[in-house]
Structure prediction request, 164 residues.
Amino acid sequence: MYDVNNNGTLQLDDLEIVVYNLATIRSWNVSSGKCKILLEKFAYEWMRLKGQIDVDRDGKISLDEWLAYHEKILVEQRQNTTWVSFIFDALNEDMNGHLCKKEWQDLFKAHHIPTVYVDEIFAKLDADGNGYLSKEEVIERLNEFYFSNDPTAIGNCMFGAYTW
Ligand SMILES: [Ca+2]
Ligand SMILES: [Ca+2]
Ligand SMILES: [Ca+2]
Prediction:
């Protein structure tokens, strides 16, 4: 889901596309301060991710490297909550501590994922049914997604059909 331009590897430009998509969705000017700050945050996060995942140090994250990284997470039963937390904050446009359905939907739009399942998935993720996703709810569901062998676990339908 992160290889936005479908060239088979994950690079900084994939993340930049996500930022520009988010900017478009939010009607931000691409030269605005908000957009620049988000770009800087993504660039920083990319350096961190690359340091952990880009094993052959070619500056790109291949699907193999991506899968190997997630296997390692599975073995260690440790989730990359920093990344989840980072994406959560990037989506949380009004920075009010939780994601409303519109903000959640931006994740799909920014990745060009069809939004037909947004309602259904949002309802499942929203464990306490208050109409908002807290960071804890998202992290918990993602943990289910990573660590559950149960194919019906809610996290498994997080992104509809999950592709990298
Ligand atoms: Ca690599
Ligand atoms: Ca919000
Ligand atoms: Ca909730």
